[in-house]
Each structure stands twice: as C-alpha cells, then as structure tokens.
Amino acid sequence: MAEMPLLHHRLALSLHHHHHLLLLPPPTTTTKRLSQRILKITMSTAASSHSPPIHQHSLDQQQQQQKDQVLRYHNQTKHNFNNYARGPYGLDWANQPNPFRRYVSSPLLPLLHPPSPNSPATTRDGSPPPLYHTVFNSLPSPKPISKTTISQLFYDSLALSAWKTTGFSTWSLRVNPSSGNLHPTEAYIIAPPIDSLIDHSFVAHYAPKEHGLEIRTEIPSGFFPKIFPKNCFLIGFSSIFWREAWKYGERAFRYCNHDVGHAIAAVSMAAAGLGWEVKVLDGLGYDELEKLMGLDVFPEFKIPSRPVKGKMPEIEFEHPDCVLLVFPSGISDFGVDYKGLSLAISQFSTLEWKGKPNLLSKEHVCWDIIYRTAEATKNPLNIFNQSMVAPFLGSGDISESSYKGFSLREVVRKRRSAVDMDGSTTMARETFYQILLHCMPSGFGSGEKQRKQLALPFRTLSWDCEVHAALFVHRVVGLPKGLYFLVRNEEHLDDLRKSTRSEFKWTKPDGCPDELPLYELAKGDCRELSKRLSCHQDIASDGCFSLGMVAHLEPTLHEKGSWMYPRLFWETGVLGQVLYLEAHAVGISATGIGCFFDDPVHEVLGVRGSKYQSLYHFTVGGPVIDKRIMSLPAYPGPGVDA
C-alpha cells in the first residue's frame, strides 16, 4: 500500500527553508542536490527531443523555434527551492500601474446598474433569477440583446464588485479575479446596434470603474448580418503584460493567461444567466484580433536583448488574446466562415478610431523573455468553417443540498479570494464530489468518456480538455487524507499511470460516483508537503483541500503548435473560476496560487520531462476574515484606487 509519508520523507529535507517570496534563500547541500537532479532531468529531456530533419521546410523550422522558445520560457520561469524565477527584489510603488485603462476623448456610454443580487427578483421583467447550481444542467430562455442585458452581462462578469479600505489604503475588487489584483485583462465589445444604447454597429472598450462603454469606432452595418446569425455579438480580451510584470517579473506571462481564463469563464457564467452561449473564435489569428479590437493603434514595441529599466510607454501596449462569440441558446447550428470574417476585419484599419490610451506608469521594467514568448505564441489565421453549436451536457448532481440556495448572480458578484484559511473548516465527502463533478469538462449523460469540453463553462473553449488536477485532501470528512488525481481527459489515463510513480494505487475512493474519474494515489497527511510546494504558504495546507493543475504540455505543443501554450493557462483559469464559484456556493471560499515550486511538484508525482507540467495551484476552505478591512459598495465607490 502506498503511503504519503514515503513521498513526504523523500522531500522533507529540501523543504526546511521558510522565506519571503521576493528573496533568494541561501542554497543548502540538500537544495543543491535537488537542483542537480532537476537539472539532469531537464538536460535529459532536451537531449531526447526530436531534431528536425535537414530537409524540413523553413516554416517547420520556424514552428520548432517557436516551440523551443515556449519551453525555454517555461523552464526559465519555474520556481525551485533554492531560487525563484527572475523578478523585482522589491516593489516600485511610485510606478505601480494604473489598474484602469481609459481611452481619453472617446465617448463614454454609461451602462445600467442592475438590482442587487439580494433582491427577491433581480431581472427587470420580474422573472426569478436562476439558482447557481441549476445553470450547470440547463440554461434559462435567452433574453433579447438590449441595454439592460448588456449592462447585466458586464456587471456580473468584469465590473467592480466592491471597494476595500484600511488605514490610508483603498483598492477596488472585481467580479473576475486577477493575480495580485493587478488586472492585466482589458475587455471590448463588438456589436450591432443595441436597443436604447446605440443606433449603429460599433467597437467599444469596457471601463469597469465607470461601468460604461468607451466607443472606439463605428463599423460597417453589414459586418454582423454577413457573418453571424441574428442576436450575436463579440467580446474581446487583451492583456497588458506590464501590469503583472511590475510585481511578478518574468513569470507574469503565465499569470496574465490565468487571468484570461478567469475572464472567459466569468463572461460564460454571466451569459448563462441570460440564456446565452459563448464560444471562443479560435480560428482568428493575431493580426485579425488586433484589427478587430483596434489595438494596432499602439506603437510597435521593440523587444530589447535583455531586461532593461526606463521610460518605455510603448510597453503598455495591449496584446490581443481572443474574441468570444455570444449568441442565444437554442439556436440552430451555424458555422463561422473565417475566410470571410478575416476579409471583413481587414477593413477595420481604415476606420476612424477614437480615444488615446492613458499612461499607466511613468517608468517601466522590460522582462524581454515575456515579449519573445508572446511573439512565439501568436496564433495564426486558421481558415475553416467552425461549427458553433454543441450539445449542452449537464454536469451532474449528487448533493444538491450542499449548495446554499444562492442565485447565480449572488455567487458571481460576491465571490472573493481568501487571504487566509482557518485550518479547521471541514467539508463533507458528498460536497467534495459535487464540486468535482462541476469541474469535469464533458458533463454526464452521453455515455462518452471525459474529453470534449461540452459542460458549462468549459464549452466556451474550442479544444479537447488538456488539464488534470492533483489533489491534496486535508479536511474532507469521510475521505482519507492523502494525494488524489482527477483525470479530466480519460484518454490520458493509461499514460498518466505509466508517467507517474509506480507505487501509486490508482483506486476509486469510497462513495465516489462511478462517472467521476477521481483516483486515490496515496494515503497520508500531506498538509506540510502541500504548504511547502506552494512556496511555503499556509493557505495551501489550511483549507479543506488544495490542488495543482497538471497540463498535457509538450505533446499539445507538438500536435497543435506553440500558440496552445497560453491556451493551456486559459483552461486552468476556467477551471479555477469554477472552483471559486463552487466554494462560495457551498458557503466557504477559495484562492488561486500562482507561486509554487514547479519541479518539486513534478517530483512528488513522479513525472519526468515536459509531457505533464503543473501550471496553477488552488486551495478551497474556510476563510479568515480580516476585520481591520472595511468593505464599501462597488458603485459609486470612493473614486480613488490607491
């Protein structure tokens, strides 16, 4: 029988150093040995990688170079016991980026503020709001597109959720979470005329502090009727890498893409409450995305050869990430002609764009590897006819009583990131299983194994599931403490068993639903282990459970291209958003953990090379409320974010 102490003792000597996240601890003999072992693994992986044949086309060579750049970035930005990824040794508060982008001189259209989620009826037509857990099994009838519904969509996905204040500090929170509350993600809407809001087709930037739309340009009236069915519109996302790099240095590219995933899921869940479906238009290339959102107005950023500091306003450009198509549920299947869409978007460069982006900082630091990796992961235009409508599969219910009866709007608006866990709150086994059912990509009822992303909100993504979860169970009543594994793509199961430690049990735990592919690997108290793997943070051990999201990395890059690298982080962000919402819905809390020791996590699992990599950690449990911090309403708000 595999016991956790066996794994724990193998790492215990390497986990004794407790230190601040921005400092480099002195190396010890043990950490040097661990580093050497990890280096040997990395070198072995590099040596065994496939060398491109001499006769390969230059395009294939370029793709290999892009993949090499991605893996170089991924390995260079790993944290380890004896050193962290490169970043600032302190925070330059004088140049903390402004969290709110504005397009100065562009017209601002205020949006409506929906009734409080606590109201008996929160829809303007008087219909009862859907309960949180119900939308995982079926969507309500679609609402018409109007000023009211567009306002609610943004209010319940990307708007401010509260202000916090203590002493001389005041800061805002948003419905969509962000690493360090830095919010690198910007949002745009591209839409036909909207009743009571605007009488022509347009592109607008969403301003969350004002809860309004900054009109960037008017687009041709034939754009939507030519490409999309009626009652469709687009939401676009971009990232300002500088906002995250200010605090996190080279690892910021990872965190920006976590945040894109959280934003995708936030929009998907808010849209579900309105009876709308959401799908990533992944056939669009980087150039099309840039033109569609008007981001080609930013001056070109020339990447330096090494990290540099100075005045670089051009570093505040927005990197286009993706565009989501929003359409009513129940619509007949339709396809998107990417060739026609690309041709229509090519005309956007000739439009009159309004507004000048505000400056976010006076001085900057450029971590050049971020921008080289962003270049290597630019997605190409993929000309094909993408089918948009997929069958909606419910996520399964085994413990509906675990939920506290909150509406969907209550859960998404009141979600908060826990700062600390209390180390005592427990969770029933049935609640644990219920949460994991909602984390599965394919839903249940089709008889198919988990692979395709057909359940809410994963159905927004256009690729098969590539992310699993290694779970550290601490305080789940009726379930032994230990290490577990949630297989979210069952086609990977046999390979996972071969790729991980031979002593792992891979048995279904007691009471686990037959359709839930959860496996017990080893029993034992892993609280200290999970804490130390997550950069010595107590929050990883003081909850009911914590987890590491393990992506099928290098095979995915090889099969699909380097542009999948950020998308794997998006997928972890979508999964993380579900964990946030599930935790609040059952009456507790959760927090994403971006700081963890990458290769020591892989050593615990026994994985080698870059086939499976941990990309994001999470913890779920009872939060500790800091009574020194006072909450203020999101709107109108104090007006200062200091």
UniProtKB/TrEMBL annotation:
SUPFAM superfamilies from the UniProt entry: FMN-dependent nitroreductase-like
Coiled-coil region list: none
InterPro entries associated with the record: Nitroreductase (IPR029479), Nitroreductase-like (IPR000415)
Disordered: annotated span: 45-67
Pfam families xref list: Nitroreductase
Domain Nitroreductase: 142-296
Molecular-function GO terms, alphabetical: oxidoreductase activity
Domain of life (superkingdom): Eukaryota
Name of the protein in question: Nitroreductase domain-containing protein
Name of the gene: LOC113726795
